[in-house]
Input
Amino acid sequence: MARIKMAYIGGGSTRGAGTMASFIHQGENFEGSEVVLIDLDPERLDLIRRLAERMVKARGLDLTIEATTDRRAGLSDCDAILSSYRPGGFAARVLDERIPLKHGIIGQETQGAGGFFMSLRSVNVLKGVVADLNDVAPNAKIFNYTNPVNIVAQAVADHSDVPIVSLCEGPIIYAEEAAAAAGLDPALLDVACVGLNHGSWSVRHRYDGQDLTRVVARILREFRPTVVVMPHPYDVHLDHAHTSYFVTEALENAEADGALAKPRVLTYLVHHPSWPATLPPTFDRFVPIGSLPDTAWTETELSPAELAAKRAALAEYRSQLEVMQGFLRNFLCRNELFATVDRRVLDRIASLH
Output
């Protein structure tokens, strides 16, 4: 059991309640400890404090929860700092993501130009935190969840003596989530990931001793789809593009022994400088864009019931609606456009990754 004083910078954030719930779930390991929530928004800070206190009381734990907008005072005599804040709030994130996309490059909080924008703000805040720690908590360690975690960690490690560890759960949990979604047993996975936060990939991906792409190929052979829908390979978001490459490789493996007839492959586009393209004056219909090479478009009309279902599904995407509501609502059109990409192009792209 460790008795510590921990400061949570960003303790009034959207993730504050969930983070405190996770800490309190492990509360028996920290009996007698104090957690100081630090944030700029006193109302949200008070809300998270009250929620945390109720969870502590429900568990019958010996944990003290404090809250303050005075960062320096909150950091005083701390042993550990949990850093998880969003400088500039969601309004800044919208700019981080949209400005680069207008120029055809990645807009994301950890990668490309958008990630660099975010890093400039994040590092600037943490520079002040480090200065405070040197004065009021010289033995404290920082556990960082503020993006981009790799740049933030390097900035602190290279320019201060404060110990820091940056964390990201993605490479740990994504493979298991994907396996579970495919109906596979996560316990049989053997996956090794490399790379950086939000830019990691697997260099070993085996399931019960087999290459995972072969397992997906087997599922495809058993399911025998006639139509496969996947992201467009020219989507500028890396997660979407890499999914396209992975599915293409799995299809190639499934077709190699002749057990699977080549299905029709339809792709959809989300992130691209020219997309979504809608028809004025109502802007409720997608129109094809001609800037994607080797692409032919297929249009499907949506019934009122299908459009209502799409609207309901979008409403469930709450975390992203907070950030890019206007962008996502552009997809509530009365038609859908799917792109057919020349398979030779797909095969060539997949062979490069």
